[in-house]
Amino acid sequence: xxxxxxxxxxFGKNLNQMVxxxxxxxxxxxxxxxxxxxxxxxxxxxxKGIILVGRSDSATTEKPPEFDPGVFGMGIPIxxxxxxxxxxxxxLGGKVEEESGGESGKVEIALExxxxxxxxxxxxxxxxxxxxxHVSVMPHGFKxxxxxxxxxxxxxxxxxxxxxxxxxxxxxxxxQDGEDMLRNFLFRICECRADWKISSFIEExxxxxxxKVGDKRVLCALSGGVDSAVAAALVNKAVGKQLxxxxxxxxxxxxxxxxxxxxxxxxxFDVNFIRVNAQERFLSRLAGVTDPEQxxxxxxxxxxxxxxxxxxxxxxxxFLVQGTIYPDVIESGVGSAEVIKSHHNVGGLPEHxxxxxxxxxxxxxxxxxxxxxxxxxxxxxxxxxxxxxxGPGLAVRVIGEITFEKLEILRDADQIFRDELEKAGxxxxxxxxxxxxxxxxxxxxxxxxxxxxxxxxxxxVTTRDFMTAEWAKIPYGVLERVSNRIVNEVNGVNRVVFxxxxxxxxxxxxx
Length: 511
Ligand code: XMP
Hints:
By secondary structure, this protein is α/β, with parallel strands linked by helices. The protein is 31% helix and 23% strand.
């Protein structure tokens, strides 16, 4: 049975993910399409409903030329959010005026509740307004469904055609009843079934992988990252020993990381596991290299070379598993083009091996869903909650020239930082945190003796999409413990600093 699907049309600014997550949390499957998707393409998914989101800057009322307003006439229920409502008004014969200095932020609104969108919601509620436009002429057949205190139109609807627009953002927490409004749209208006569940996803994927793979063999490169680990566990559940996992240990992983991955996959999942200890090979190629981009290139190339050599030893393998997840494949609308950086592919797919097919079992999932699948398959919390780790690993966290000694110093300092953040219960709220071994040495005193040792920098950020980030406000007490432990327990370090720069202008990594 096909699952009920909602299409989210994205007009940019990366707002689609918040909405998609809310829809999926309501157990309804959704997919994001860019605003230039044709009506045919949308209809091919047989959607039960459409949500228009994006472009929070109300700089323009013009519709983007590539958007097909035929969407409004397909007979499919539509919810236009913010800019989406504006388009709905102007494309269906109404008019909007830009309001500079109008209401924005948290605003009290009064709802009409005799309609499906606001059914069972309090008549007085508060919402988050980020678009400030004013509907001066209503489109034909529409009614005002909500007004703000100074009477601006905050929501409209044409119940017969099932077209609705809200000026506020129902997907964010500040909109008090936003979740109920979205649920009303999904279940009352679109009449979706709540049939998107992690357990059924696993069952369906396992069946699909079995069907696809038959009695052939599958190869997976494990990096220790969440996505590849979950993908491997899922494929393993489907085809057992037909899966071969290769872990290339390039010596640039964090403390004990390779061992942990090996332990989980060998002992718990009993997969065919090959660990390639290639530390020396990587280190010798990196010797004397200080330029970050050069380091990335070397690690990327060498990774592929090692992986290919191992794969060749196995003879013909028909399928390659990739841990691609949904945010990697979403085509975004205007203004959010730079979703994946080219360097994110480092350590990724080897291009020179011939496989008849790629299997991407997580292609439809958001990160939090990938984690749920991982937990349900029995992967340990520690692996499932692992923070992102760059393909070139510690090569870009040892500033300047890389040596084995420096890597060991960094591994120890990083382990202490992670350990203390976990103890302080901060590990899930801070999205990425790590130590950096700066190339700088400075004078200090340890046990009454002068030292001339390295400075370790601590980096910790909160971020939604890793494109922008804020430095995490870690309590002083925790920082103090981390610093004390690092200078006392790690030889070669006599100074610890905390990076208080946001991205931009700094990047998250130091190199
Ligand atoms: P930056 O430093 O660009 O990092 O702010 C954003 C996110 O990307 C990760 N990152 C990388 N990931 N290969 C990767 O696979 C790389 O070369 C690379 N460089 C940065 C970084 O850890 C952060 O999560």
